[in-house]
């Protein structure tokens, strides 16, 4: 049997030199006259080990990483094709603690299979959910998703089944499934990873959503900052069409469903569902007032399911294994698993899919291994640019929608950015306002003007001009933005600003006074 | 790059519009294609698009100017995007950005006088676990540090 060598083509691995490694391996194979196959898989999500090369051996897949092109010759000399010992050897990949501690349901295949091989996809449990769905009544599919407890993984946490039920119950000549793949939050990359590493699972999830709600057309709105994901998704859709998974008869059933990949154009606010719909329609990505809900009047005024990538990619396993299986994981009203992304100044950064309920401290200190710089952790931002900064005092907070809300924070799309003690929280608060000013769609005043005024106020605070007055002003401004903004951009920017101010008041004291105190 | 003349711009734009006008919500795909062809969105193109899609020129301008991706003028020979978002900040992206700006003698949204490179901020490339990150002409770069920054500057200047 030909040996298989896996070299990820995931963007994160490419950013660290995976293409050069793959090329070096191909050259060595040719020079040594060895017959082996290089498979460009997705990433396992262990980014501190990327590029992580894996070799299939009789005792399982053995990993090596991080591999640089210059290491390749030595790896061959060490007999890595048979799992030979080398300083970069990681042993059996499944036994690496970071992976062994995970519960991979949504990411079950990511990093294991060839992303564009339908044979691989089927061999690893793909399409079972869709096959079941194709023979079920739409209402039963919706009931299964509702019963599973799946909530929107984009950040809002709205029950997916309830949303689907509204679309199912709305009569129309045309309905749509829209996948929100505008993953703009810093520290998040799970959508990118699944689209690059297991694109068929998203196609399968969207197709199931189509059958469940009577929608025949799907769009993936994919941000332009992800060119590799766009390329992989386009190729996967083409393959799925040729295989009869998409088209007028989905897998030979009476259901029709097809889909298109659409590139965004660099606007963060288009991750908000109504501005995304406007963008898809070819308009400025301006937020729409709700109601009407997109489920009733969505894309082109038609009933539309709009779900995040991870929500849709979690549907196949729910249909395959059943609602109870999925619901069994998690805590409280947060059921199932969530792909947590640990990023920033962290030793072991990557994707960690686990049942809800682990504490923030476990994730940052144990799983993440503390900071990359080796300095103490000062703060972590959870939920992207609209998420709160948490101090160590709150590290006992369990990863759960309600638990985070109770601490004036949010899970969002489940990204965690770790900062060491060199972070300046006033600077971070100011950046939040600046980001909001750059990305505001401009429709509502609190967001458009409030963000600019917030930036100016924090600048005056940094200069030590009437600090008490500035803090009072920015607190008041945050209240206005929180309650007066139309969408989560202006409405949630107060989370990072106020959490920084509340938990790290020393960073907001006048600099002159601080220096005098030292 | 030699810039296309007015009539040629119109003809090439019309060809793109004809190919994509059948899509549902065709405007963004058309703008992306026009920019891929010319490197920016020529004014003549907007007129052709507006006419073909039965929109006002103001509407097309409004859409084109809303999105960060679309350019009113050609970029430099290389486009370097540096991530400014939080995960990259936590790994020192601000210092790297300052270094690159100083080496190139330009700020964000500017092009060097020799036309070699345009520098742009980007808010997240999804490479947050190998920060700081950048994108050079579509190629992703992780763990950007001073040494890699110097290499990039040398490469785009070459």
Search tags:
heterodimer, A: 518 residues, alpha/beta, Glutaredoxin, Rossmann fold, Ubiquitin-like (UB roll), 4 domains, 5-stranded mixed β-sheet, 22 helices, 16 strands, 42% helix, globular, B: 158 residues, alpha+beta, 2 domains, 5 strands, 4 iron, 4 sulfur cluster binding (chain A)
Explain what the structure shows.
The complex is a heterodimer of chains A (518) and B (158). By secondary structure, chain A is of the alpha/beta class. Helix content of chain A is 42%, strand content 15%. Chain A contains 22 helices and 16 strands. Chain A has helices at 11-15, 18-32, 72-77, 97-100, 118-123, 128-134, 138-148, 160-168, 190-197, 199-213, 227-242, 273-280, 309-321, 323-327, 360-367, 401-406, 425-439, 445-462, 467-484, 488-492, 494-503, 511-517, and strands spanning 3-6, 36-39, 53-57, 60-64, 89-92, 176-181, 217-222, 258-263, 304-308, 330-331, 334-335, 337-344, 350-355, 377-382, 389-391, 415-420. In chain A, the strands form four sheets. Chain A has a five-stranded mixed beta sheet with strand order 2-1-3-4-5, with helices on one face. Chain A is globular. The model of chain A has no long low-confidence stretch (mean pLDDT 97). Chain B has 158 residues and is α+β, with helices and mostly antiparallel strands. Helices cover 48% and strands 13% of the residues of chain B. Chain B has helices at residues 6-20, 27-38, 43-53, 57-66, 86-89, 93-104, 146-157; strands at 78-83, 110-111, 117-122, 134-136, 139-141. A five-stranded mixed beta sheet of chain B has the order 2-3-1-4-5. In chain B, a hairpin with a 2-residue loop joins strand 4 (134-136) and strand 5. In chain B, helix 1 packs antiparallel against helix 2 (27-38), helix 3 packs across helix 4 (57-66) and helix 6 runs parallel beside helix 7. The longest helix of chain B is centred in the N-terminal third of the chain and has 15 residues, at 6-20. Chain B is elongated, with a radius of gyration of 18 Å. Chain B starts with 5 loop residues before the first helix and ends with a helix. The chains are: A alpha/beta (518), B alpha+beta (158). The interface between A and B is large, with 65 and 42 residues.
């Amino acid at each position: 049997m030909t040996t298989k060598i896996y070299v990820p083509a995931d963007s994160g691995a490419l950013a660290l030199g995976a293409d050069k490694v793959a090329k070096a391996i191909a050259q060595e194979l040719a020079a040594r006259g060895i017959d082996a196959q290089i498979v460009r898989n997705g990433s396992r999500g262990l980014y501190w080990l990327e590029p992580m090369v894996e070799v299939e051996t009789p005792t399982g897949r053995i990993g090596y990483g991080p591999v640089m092109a210059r290491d390749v010759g030595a790896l061959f000399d060490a007999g890595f094709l048979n799992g030979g010992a080398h300083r970069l050897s990681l042993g059996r990949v499944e036994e690496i603690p970071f992976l062994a501690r995970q519960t991979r349901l949504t990411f079950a295949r990511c990093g294991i299979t060839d992303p564009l091989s339908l044979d691989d996809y089927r061999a690893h449990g793909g399409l079972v959910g869709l096959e079941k769905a194709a023979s079920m009544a739409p209402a039963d599919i919706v009931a299964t998703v509702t019963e599973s407890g799946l909530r929107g993984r984009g950040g809002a946490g709205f029950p997916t089944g309830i949303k689907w039920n509204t679309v199912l119950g709305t009569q129309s000549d045309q309905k749509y499934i829209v996948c929100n793949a505008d993953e703009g939050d810093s520290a998040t990359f799970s959508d990118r990873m699944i689209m690059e590493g297991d694109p068929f699972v998203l196609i399968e999830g969207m197709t199931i959503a189509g059958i469940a709600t009577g929608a025949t057309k799907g769009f993936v709105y994919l941000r332009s900052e992800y060119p590799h994901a766009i390329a992989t998704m386009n190729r996967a859709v083409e393959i799925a069409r040729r295989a009869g998974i998409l088209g007028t008869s989905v897998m030979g059933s009476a259901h029709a469903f097809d889909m298109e990949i659409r590139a965004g154009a660099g606007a963060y606010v288009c991750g908000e569902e109504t501005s995304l719909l406007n963008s898809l329609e070819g308009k400025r990505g301006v937020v729409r007032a709700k109601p009407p809900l997109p489920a009733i009047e969505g894309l082109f005024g038609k009933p539309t399911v709009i779900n995040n990538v991870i929500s849709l990619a979690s549907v196949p396993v729910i249909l395959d294994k059943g609602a109870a299986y999925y619901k069994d994981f998690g805590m409280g009203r947060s059921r199932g698993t969530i792909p947590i992304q640990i990023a920033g100044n962290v030793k072991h950064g990557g994707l960690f899919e686990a049942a809800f309920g682990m504490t923030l401290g476990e994730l940052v200190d144990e799983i993440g291994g503390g900071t990359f710089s080796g300095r103490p952790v000062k703060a972590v931002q959870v939920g992207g640019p609209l998420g709160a900064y948490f101090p160590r005092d709150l590290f006992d907070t369990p990863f759960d929608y309600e638990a985070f809300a109770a601490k004036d924070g949010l899970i969002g799309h489940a990204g965690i950015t770790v900062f060491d003690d060199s972070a300046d929280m006033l600077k971070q608060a100011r950046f939040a306002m600046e980001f909001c000013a750059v990305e505001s769609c401009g429709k509502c005043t609190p967001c458009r003007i409030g963000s600019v005024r917030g930036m100016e106020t924090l600048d005056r605070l940094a200069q030590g001009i009437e600090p008490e007055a500035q803090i009072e002003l920015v607190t008041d401004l945050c209240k206005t933005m929180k309650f007066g903004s139309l969408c989560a951009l202006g409405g949630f920017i107060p989370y990072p600003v106020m959490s920084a101010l509340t938990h790290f008041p020393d960073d907001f004291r006048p600099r002159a006074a601080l220096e005098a105190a030292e | 790059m030699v810039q296309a003349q007015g009539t040629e711009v119109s003809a090439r734009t019309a060809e793109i519009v004809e190919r994509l006008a059948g899509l549902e919500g065709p405007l963004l795909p058309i703008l992306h294609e026009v920019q891929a062809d010319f490197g920016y969105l020529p004014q003549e193109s907007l007129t052709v698009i507006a006419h073909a899609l039965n929109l006002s020129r103001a509407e097309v301008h409004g859409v084109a100017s809303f999105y960060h991706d679309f350019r009113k003028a050609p970029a430099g020979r290389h486009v370097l995007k540096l991530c400014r978002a939080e995960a990259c900040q936590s790994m020192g992206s601000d210092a790297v950005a300052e270094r690159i700006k100083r080496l190139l003698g330009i700020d964000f949204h500017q092009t060097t006088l020799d036309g070699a490179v345009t520098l742009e901020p980007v808010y997240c490339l999804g490479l947050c676990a190998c920060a700081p990150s950048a994108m050079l002409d579509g190629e992703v770069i992780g763990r950007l540090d001073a040494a890699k920054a110097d290499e990039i500057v040398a490469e785009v200047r070459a």
